[in-house]
C-alpha cells in the first residue's frame, strides 16, 4: 500500500466555491492548505495571539466584522498583521460583508489572499470544512479494482493475472458500475474508506489481448462512478485443492485493514468453469442480507442443531 500526499492550494478552494477575490495575485493563490479546519479569530482580534493555529483558513463573519468596527486603527493593524502571516492560507469574508479598509490595505501590501463569499457564516464553515476534510483525508493507493455492485463498494484484489479486469468487465455488462481498475486511491473520511480512481486512469479498463478501453464511451456515462464507500473486499486466489476454503460461512469473519479501518473481506478461489461475476454478485447480496440480520450460514447452522436435537 502506497501513501498518497495531498497537495491542496488556495486556488482549489477558490475554483470549487467560486469565491470573489478581493486581494491577492495568482501567485498568492498557490499558498498551501494543510489543516482541514477553519479559524474565527475572535481572540486574535482582541489582541491575544498565544496558542493561535495560524495554518487554518480564517473566516470573518457577522461577529468579527461588527467587532472590527469597534477597534481603533492601531489595534486593527496589529491584529490584521498577525492573521495575514505567511503560514495562514487565506481569509474569507462571509455574507458579502464589506472588507475593512485597513485589512484590504495590509492584504494588498503582503499579496495575501482575501476572499469573499455570499454564504451565511455557518454554511460557509460547514461547506469549507467538508471540502477540506475530503481533500486532506489520509490517502493510500492499493492494487485492485473497485466497483459499485448493488450499491455496495466492492474492492476486488488479487495477484496480477487473476482476471480482475475481465471479471470487472463482465460485472459492468451486467449493469454494475466501474469506479477504478488496477489502482484504487483510498481516503479515510471520518471512519469510512472512500475509493476512487487516479485521474489518469478514470473510466479506463485494461483487458489483456485488447488493451485499454474507455468504459463510459463503450457502455455509457451511467456505467461509471466517480467514488464510492468501500464496504467489502473480495480477494481472488488461485484454486488449490489442498486449501481449506469456507464452505458454510460460519467460520471466523475476515477483515482487511485500510488506513486503520477494518473492511469485511471474503476470499474466493478462481478456477476454470466458475462464473466469478455471478459468484461475486451472490457474495455481495449475501453480505447485504447479513448486514440486515439475515445470515444464511447461521440459519443453516440452526437447522442442523434442530435436526440433531430432534433425532437424539
Tell me the layout of helices and strands.
Blueprint: E1 2-4, H1 10-17, E2 20-23, E3 38-39, H2 42-45, E4 57-60, H3 62-68, H4 73-83, E5 91-93, H5 101-110, E6 114-116, H6 121-135, E7 139-143, E8 145-149, E9 152-157, H7 164-173, E10 177-180, E11 183-189, E12 192-196, E13 204-207, E14 211-214, H8 215-219, E15 227-238, E16 254-258, E17 261-270, H9 276-291, H10 296-310
3D architecture notes:
By secondary structure, the chain is an alpha/beta fold. The protein has two domains: 7-135, HprK N-terminal domain-like (Udp-n-acetylmuramoylalanyl-d-glutamate--2,6- Diaminopimelate Ligase, Chain: A, domain 1, 3-Layer(aba) Sandwich), CATH 3.40.1390.20; 139-306, P-loop containing nucleotide triphosphate hydrolases (Rossmann fold, 3-Layer(aba) Sandwich), CATH 3.40.50. The protein is built from ten helices and 17 strands. It has helices at residues 10-17, 42-45, 62-68, 73-83, 101-110, 121-135, 164-173, 215-219, 276-291, 296-310, and strands at 2-4, 20-23, 38-39, 57-60, 91-93, 114-116, 139-143, 145-149, 152-157, 177-180, 183-189, 192-196, 204-207, 211-214, 227-238, 254-258, 261-270. Strands 1, 7, 8, 9, 10, 11, 12, 15, 16 and 17 form a ten-stranded mixed β-sheet that branches. A hairpin with a 2-residue loop joins strand 16 (254-258) and strand 17 (261-270).
Summarize the structure.
The chain has ten helices and 17 strands.
Features:
Udp-n-acetylmuramoylalanyl-d-glutamate--2,6- Diaminopimelate Ligase, Chain: A, domain 1, Rossmann fold, elongated, 312 residues, 2 domains, 5-stranded mixed sheet, 10-stranded mixed sheet, alpha/beta
Amino acid at each position: 500500500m502506497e501513501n498518497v500526499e495531498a497537495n491542496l492550494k488556495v486556488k482549489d478552494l477558490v475554483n470549487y466555491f467560486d469565491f470573489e477575490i478581493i486581494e491577492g495575485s495568482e501567485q498568492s493563490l498557490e499558498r498551501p492548505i494543510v489543516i482541514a479546519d477553519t479559524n474565527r479569530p475572535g481572540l486574535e482580534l482582541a489582541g491575544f495571539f498565544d496558542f493561535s493555529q495560524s495554518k487554518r483558513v480564517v473566516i470573518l463573519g457577522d461577529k468579527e466584522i461588527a467587532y472590527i468596527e469597534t477597534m481603533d486603527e492601531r489595534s486593527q493593524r496589529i491584529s490584521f498583521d498577525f492573521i495575514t502571516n505567511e503560514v495562514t492560507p487565506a481569509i474569507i469574508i462571509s455574507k458579502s460583508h464589506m472588507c475593512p479598509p485597513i485589512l484590504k490595505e495590509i492584504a494588498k501590501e503582503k499579496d495575501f489572499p482575501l476572499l469573499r463569499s455570499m454564504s451565511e457564516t455557518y454554511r460557509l464553515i460547514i461547506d469549507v470544512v467538508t471540502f477540506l476534510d475530503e481533500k486532506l483525508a489520509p490517502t493510500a493507493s492499493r492494487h485492485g479494482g473497485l466497483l459499485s455492485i448493488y450499491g455496495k463498494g466492492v474492492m476486488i484484489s488479487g495477484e496480477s493475472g487473476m482476471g480482475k479486469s475481465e471479471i470487472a468487465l463482465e460485472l459492468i455488462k451486467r449493469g454494475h458500475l466501474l469506479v477504478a481498475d488496477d489502482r484504487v486511491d483510498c481516503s479515510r473520511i471520518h471512519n469510512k474508506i472512500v475509493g476512487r480512481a487516479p485521474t489518469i486512469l478514470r473510466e479506463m479498463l485494461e483487458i489483456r489481448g485488447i488493451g485499454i478501453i474507455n468504459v463510459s464511451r463503450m457502455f455509457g456515462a451511467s456505467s461509471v462512478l466517480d467514488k464510492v464507500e468501500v464496504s467489502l473486499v473480495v480477494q481472488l486466489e488461485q484454486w488449490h485443492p489442498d486449501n481449506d476454503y469456507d464452505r458454510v460461512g460460519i467460520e471466523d469473519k475476515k477483515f482487511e485493514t485500510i488506513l486503520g479501518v477494518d473492511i469485511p473481506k471474503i476470499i474466493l478461489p478462481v478456477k476454470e468453469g466458475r462464473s466469478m461475476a455471478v459468484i461475486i454478485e451472490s457474495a455481495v447480496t449475501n453480505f447485504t442480507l447479513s448486514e440486515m440480520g439475515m445470515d444464511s450460514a447461521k440459519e443453516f447452522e440452526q437447522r442442523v442443531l434442530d435436526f440433531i436435537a430432534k433425532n437424539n
